Give the backbone structure.
Amino acid sequence: MATLSSKQVKELSKQFFRIVTSIGQFREDKWEDLTKGQHQKLSHLQRSVYSYSDDLLTLASVLKLGEVDSELTEMNQVADEVNEALQKAEKVEKVINIAAKVVMLGGAVVSQSPLAIVASLAELTQEISPLA
């Protein structure tokens, strides 16, 4: 199998989630007709498909990080923009907000959580965009 892009894996995650919804709808529609064993089996399978959907979403984030030429380069660029924004900031609340977002990014990097890194970078970029 060829390597999938983060976008393709994210779409696959979405499709798995749609399947989870369809299994749930089937169970609801046939509730009275299903035996206890069938309910349990479908419930277990539904949770498993959901788990894979979640795992695929995480994988998409990891792949997205890998598709960037160098995540470090992006973080260095953001760091430069943060420094520029801090030099331009005039209100203490803005500096506090920027610093808090940098702390969140630091925690995400240290925890090696791809989802948290992507989210933290987005939040930090949004926080500094009016100033950078």
The two ends are 43 Å apart (CA to CA). The longest helix spans residues 36-67. Residues 43 and 124 are 40 Å apart (CA to CA). The chain has a mean pLDDT of 84.
